[in-house]
Design goal:
- Helices cover about 40% and strands about 15% of the residues.
- With about 400 residues, the chain is an alpha/beta fold.
- The protein folds into two domains: about 140 residues, Aspartate Aminotransferase, domain 1; about 230 residues, Type I PLP-dependent aspartate aminotransferase-like (Major domain) (Aspartate Aminotransferase, domain 2, 3-Layer(aba) Sandwich), CATH 3.40.640.10.
- The strands form three sheets. The chain has a seven-stranded mixed sheet with strand order 2-8-7-6-5-3-4, with helices on both faces.
- The protein is globular and about 55 Å long.
- The termini are far apart.
- The mean pLDDT is about 95.
- Bound molecules: pyridoxal-5'-phosphate.
- Pyridoxal-5'-phosphate (PLP) binds next to α5.
- The site of pyridoxal-5'-phosphate has 13 residues, from α5.
């Protein structure tokens, strides 16, 4: 142990890695021989479509991809992202100035927050919300201001929480919403832009579940504003490419320019073959992506209907592949621990997503239907807070 080596303040400020802690608990149970049904993380269980894998194989074999890639985003990939926005959302983007690729939307979110927020600045984040927003704000030395999303408002923001705030660097939202599965209304995005204008803030919309809407295609925030709004999205969920680490941001040219500047210094460049394969996924046949939405819909129906029939209080899940369930009066971390120990089911305790997640657990629909049917059986009935 070298006592002169210490983490920097920005590392000390980081919250515990929520998903890392979940993984460790699941691994420990499996070591004890437990047959764990792990629904604690949003890690897609199905393979990437074959034509995208073939595009990657071809691109990986091309010597042109073996040297350092150029900075920025390959034109073919930027064009493919623009094509998806045009066809899926009716939004026209300039591929050169309004689009940038990243190693996953996680990195896009980091580039947005670290590119925009000075130490001491305010970053508005949803509560409950994806834990990486707090990590990004901690790395920036920024202050978090929580925007409550309550079930009484269908998990749309309670804007009164911003009444006393006079300025902010960024307002972050995420619809379809991890962890609740709620989808946005256009009124939500209109009000966000109005509030962002008032605060002098950028609007960063995390659109990681851009394809996963069960009633209709999820609404892009860029249909409402493109001047102070950037949308961050990913191929991880739409094309089962979570391991490939490729995502993108689109919207305000000014903000995209800032994010690219940060990216070049912090993250360098992206493997050319990954960019080529991502272009093939986005520009090619979308039938696998459409079929995936149908599959998640069937999984959602099985789990939501099954749990409701057993007496669990389940939030409407209009998008994402998550199901948000009230923990029935039991502390959510206690319930999660007991479900793992007594039922061999790993869930994410809602409090990992913020204070307003307390009293809930999140289930990810990342198993085949028969395994999810077993999950429902194992969960049984809430039984007044006691496991049956
Ligand atoms: C809301 C949300 N944003 C961002 C991400 C990061 O995804 P990726 O970095 O794979 O694009 C996830 C992953 O689960 C997510 O749920």
């Amino acid at each position: 142990m070298i006592d002169t080596i210490a983490p920097a303040a920005r590392v000390r400020a980081l919250p515990t890695n929520f998903f890392g802690a979940l993984d460790a608990a699941v691994a420990a149970a499996r070591t004890r021989g437990v047959d764990v049904i792990d629904v604690s993380k949003g890690n897609p269980d199905l393979p990437t479509p074959a034509h995208v894998v073939r595009a990657m194989q071809k691109a990986a074999a091309a010597p042109g991809n073996h040297s350092y890639p150029a900075y920025g985003t390959r034109p073919a990939l930027a064009d493919a992202i623009a094509l998806r926005y045009r066809e899926d959302h009716g939004v026209d983007l300039d591929p050169q100035s309004q689009i940038a690729a990243f190693h996953g939307s996680h990195e896009g979110l980091m580039a947005a927050v670290l590119g925009l927020a000075d130490p001491g600045a305010t970053v508005v984040v949803p509560d409950p919300g994806y834990p990486a927003y707090a990590s990004a704000a901690a790395l920036a030395g920024a202050r978090l201001h929580l925007l409550p999303l309550d079930p009484e408002r269908a998990h749309q923001p309670d804007w009164s929480a911003l009444a006393a705030l006079t300025d902010a660097a960024a307002v972050l939202l995420n619809y379809p919403h991890n962890p609740t599965g709620a989808t946005a209304t256009s009124m939500t995005f209109e009000r966000t832009v109005t509030e962002a204008e008032r605060l002098g803030a950028a609007f960063i919309h995390d659109f990681a579940y851009s394809s996963l809407g069960f009633e209709r295609r999820p609404l892009s925030a860029l249909t409402v504003d493109i001047d102070r709004t950037v949308e961050v999205s990913t191929l991880s969920k739409t094309y089962n490419m979570a391991g490939w680490r490729i995502g993108y941001a689109a919207g305000s040219a000014e903000i995209i320019g800032i994010m690219r500047g940060f990216q070049a210094h912090a993250f360098s460049t992206i493997f050319g073959a990954t960019q080529d394969a991502a272009a093939a996924a986005l520009a090619g046949d979308q039938s696998a992506a459409d079929a995936l939405v149908d599959l998640y819909r069937r999984r959602r129906d099985l789990v939501v209907d099954g749990l409701r029939a057993r007496g669990w209080d389940v939030s409407p899940a209009d998008g994402t592949f998550f199901v948000w369930v009230a923990s029935g009066g039991v502390d959510d971390t206690v319930l999660a621990r007991r479900l793992l120990e007594e039922r061999g089911v790993a869930v994410a305790p809602g409090s990992g997503f913020g204070d307003r997640g307390r009293g809930y657990i999140r289930l990810a629909l990342v198993h085949p239907l028969d395994r999810l049917a077993e999950l429902v059986e194992r969960l049984g009935a809430p039984a007044g807070g006691r496991l049956p």
